[in-house]
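REVIEWER CHECKLIST
Item 1: Sequence provided? yes
Item 2: Single chain? yes
Item 3: Sequence as submitted:
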Amino acid sequence: MSFANTGSQVQSVVPAPREQSAAAQLASGHLAAVDRATEAFYAAVAELDTSAVRGPSLLPGWTRAHVISHVARNADALVNLLTWARTGVEHQAYTSRADRDADIEEGSTRILQLLRADLDSACLRFAAAAEAMPASAWEAEVSQPSGGTILGHQVPWLRLRELLFHLVDLNVGHDFDDIPEEFLEDLVDGLVGHFADKPDVPAARIEVLLPDARQRVWELSTVGTDSSPTVSGGASDVIGWLSGRHDGSRLSGDVPNLPDWI
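Item 4: Structure as written out by the authors:
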């Protein structure tokens, strides 16, 4: 669905599963989830009026308009990565962090109608770029904004993660409990990895009860693991804490303070 035509759906078309490589199958599954998450994000934004869009999000210093602008610019950044994977010509996600921040700030000042139109156009560009990907491109290597390299088929996952987190950040009643269960374990894994190379990360043993009743353990830091405090809880509550959206009061154990989410 788009704001311009609520009768149409933003869909990323890829070959039928029997024709796909393993990488293309992964991309296909995540693109289908991106479509659903985009619809949910559209629906939340459609409920906002001019006053509400200027109200605070869950991200410090950002209004809901900042979040919407960021989600639009993230779509364009990931279009650059898909283009890189498809053509082999380097297209960095952002020209610089400063330019990224300036674009988000500029977008946040737009009137609601233009803010929605910008989001709509950016989401459609992402869908078109995904549709244009040949099967081989999903296995191409590109650089992600946070550093390091990923394969093309991981780009849809990056988009899905942004949509799921920032739908919560709109602060309109969505929470991490609303995230589809099949993505929770991967989200926790990615969040723990986010802290891997950061200074001042406290040692903690994180015990997570997953939706399928399995319990999985992560070590937040490898320093002092012999005496690490144990933090336990459900996957959605752990995600809220690790991502800096919740204070950890929903968890059990000696919950340490985490570095600022950057």
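Item 5: Key structural point noted by reviewer: DSSP finds eight helices and six strands in the chain.
Item 6: Recommendation: ____
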